[in-house]
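Subject: Predicted fold for DUF4124 domain-containing protein, 169 residues

User T.R. writes:
Posting the sequence so we have a shared reference for the thread.
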Amino acid sequence: MIQTSIPWRHQALAVLGGLCLLGGALPASAQYMWLDEKGVKQLSDRPPPPNIPDKRILKAPGKTSFNPDAAPAEEAAPAQASTPTLAERNAEFNRRQTEARQAAGKAADEARQRAAIAANCEIARKNQQALNDGIRIATYDKNGERSFMTDAERVEQEKNNRKVLANCK
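User M.O. replies:
I've generated the structure tokens; pasting them so everyone works from the same file.
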């Protein structure tokens, strides 16, 4: 008599052989696990960046897996000590925010000062042009009475304008 079905033992052996082949393919999809600069665990199928030291690589093909229950090695202890806590990271974030606000305020103050200097330079140029053109320039005293500049006052005003214009770009 000819048997047309495959016995269950052969089927089990075929399944077991397939699982062995599949198990052999698992190292090809090796996973990497490391701690980045901020102490955050990273998982990838690609190796970590070259700036990550070996002691921060938790899992890599050919490297024994990281065991969190094992006693820390002497060289692993400094890495754990250098990992900032959430409070330390928060304090660092707040410090950076404060520095950014101070830098923005300083930049705004410098911009206002540059604008004021530019306005003073423009006024000094116009005054110098009026003095050079020989236009009669009126001045007002503390009582509000109008008088015209004398030649000596014009020379003095030209000196002052030249000092201001020397600092202008």
